[in-house]
Amino acid sequence: MPDLHSSLSLLGLLQLSSSTLPVGAYSYSEGLEALVEAGKIFHGESLQHWLAWELRYGSIQLEAAAMVRTYRAIATDDCAAILYWNAWLSAVRETEELRSQSWQMGRSLLRLLQDTQPNREPNPEMVTKLAEVQQVCGHHCNFAIAFALAATYWQIDERSALFGYLFSWANNLVGAGVRLIPLGQTIGQQILLNLHEAIELASQTILTLSDDDLAACGWGLSLASMTHETQYSRLFRS
Amino acid sequence: MLKGVVFFRKRKAHPPTASVTPLRISSELNSPIGWQGKLDLAFAYAQEKTSLVHCQVQAPLKVQRPFYPEGNRVCHSVILHTAGGIVGGDRLALNVTLQPQAQVLITTAAAGKIYRSNGLQARQTTFLEVSAGACLEWLPQETIVFNQAIYRQDLRIELAPGATWLGWEITRLGRSARGERFLQGQWRSHTEVWQQGHPLWIDRQWLQGGEPWMDSPNGLAGCPVIASLAWLGAPISPELLEKIRLLWDTTNETSGFADGNDEAAVTRLQSGLLCRYRGNSTQVARRWLIAVWQLIRLSSSRQTACLPGVWSL
To answer: How many angstroms separate the CA atoms of B299 and B305, rounded?
Structure first.
């Protein structure tokens, strides 16, 4: 029988990685819209291939690795490290569009945390930390940084937070692909199921990467996102 | 050790070895077997002239005598790699300092070559320091990464307030002219641009040799050539961005070389600009990047540059 603490953590995780988390994730396609328009992604298989590759070698690994590092920095009250990883992420984002997305979603999540009370007695220490991160990262808080804070705030363990981060990313982009290609909802769910293994593998890798190892192969994403910035007709925002 | 012989023979690619490159090779392979090339340059600006004021080199790196094809303000320097190419175990360290107001263009005498590795990583580390009001244009010729090469380069740029850096890199993976593909080996390129303790741009690229990397649309999409141009230290106006975005079509309309697989795009960085190319031709990449560079030159109220004579265009 799981104890109350772990059940509550699980609920926190489900809520944080839910597609209904009001941070605007659904309005971004991270290059998929340009790829679909160019005919490079055109069915379920090509969408799944794209997402599985990104999980294995793409820049989502860098984001997730920065999220994990921030999670640890919050736990040890290392404000300088939080600031460092936030600035690092802003500098690592391939395009203006991806950078703006990360900042907008980060800002929204921080605001949500401020405007809601946690399900348990708020830990005064955490309230201070929330204020601290806001102070430190200012207007340009990346989503991965805010996510790490939310995970700490809702007492989700590190590994679960990492799963949640990768899952909500995949879930959102499968949703975007389903709308763009378009695909049936069942196919979307099948793709997401098929990505479980890639998510599991990615999280294992991310937990073992040294700072110096952090690198990605981002040519496809970089070009697609840049192209999307000037795409004439589109559903998804820059 | 036998391996010292490496210093004296003409560089040729190593014979094939059975060793398979591990995924994400670490930087631990740093045993001093190949060249330990060094290059330290400093430039200063005084009396309306930029001069090379410090120059210390260690083979196989050398620098040509500076020249001034566009007047005394801008010093052109050409770096040479006298051994012809880089092999596993080589370590090259380049340091370039621009003192306040100096304006320098640096290129290389020939295309760089990274030969097939004997199992060791070849590594180049470059540190560029650009002081206040100085401007460095870092425009090396393309690098050809042979199949089975294991290579890592680190480029770090420190910008003082008011300093600017424009750099490009054109890389061909595999000697595609002779049908070679990059099917084994590893290429890793870390670039970081910092200003007063704040990172402006961090680019952490790596590629593993192999068909999944070469052919996946996420990776190289079947194209052997990748190129990037970054300009940092100055905010980019929407008007300039718009003009630069138009250049890809206009340069290809006039010369008509780019094929349907060639892709190029532009975005803004924090305090700068980034252009990326993925395609089949280093010529197409270079022509486009030159056009972008020239437009940036004009926009920053400087003359368009005359192209270095060592470039065979």
So the answer is: 12
State the average pLDDT over residues B173-196. 96
Any domain includes B279: yes
**Chain B residues in contact with chain A using a Cβ-Cβ cutoff of 8 Å:** 24, 26-27, 188, 190, 192-193, 198-208, 212-213, 216-221, 226, 245, 263-270, 274, 276, 278
* Torsional class of B222: left (φ above 0), alpha (ψ -120 to 50), beta (otherwise): left
Give chain A positions within 8 Å (CB) of B263.
223, 227
Domain A39-211 indexed as CATH 1.10.4190.10: yes
- Taking the C-alpha atoms of residue B13 and residue B181, their distance in angstroms, rounded to an integer, is 16
Determine the residue of chain B that is closest to A97 in CA distance.
B267
Q: Does A180 contact chain B (CB < 8 Å)?
A: no
Instruction: Give the range of the structural domain holding residue B217, as residue numbers without chain letter.
Output: 27-312
Amino acid residing at A52: A
pLDDT band at A122 (very low <50, low <70, confident <90, very high): low
B267 vs A122, higher pLDDT? B267
**B179: in domain:** yes
Q: Are B114 and B149 in contact (CB under 8 A)?
A: yes
Q: pLDDT tens-digit profile of B146-180?
A: 999 999 999 999 999 999 999 999 999 999 989 99
Tell whether the model's pLDDT for residue B78 goes beyond 60. yes
Question: ipTM of this predicted complex?
Answer: 0.95
Do residues A94 and A221 make contact, with C-beta atoms less than 8 angstroms apart? yes
SS (H, E, C) A60-85: HHHHHHHHHHHHHHHHCCCHHHHHHH
Task: Assess if residue B234 is contained within a domain.
Answer: yes
Phi, psi of A41 (to 5 degrees): -120, 120
Question: pLDDT tens for residues A31-75?
Answer: 999 999 999 999 999 999 999 999 999 999 999 999 999 999 999
Q: Where are the domains of chain A?
A: 39-211
- For residue B15, tell me if it sits in a domain: no
| Cβ–Cβ contact A212 with B under 8 A | yes
User: Which pTM does this prediction carry?
Assistant: 0.92
Domain count, chain B: 1
Considering only the beta carbons, identify the residue of A50, A87, A215 that sits closest to B205.
Answer: A215
Please give the pLDDT value at position A129: 79
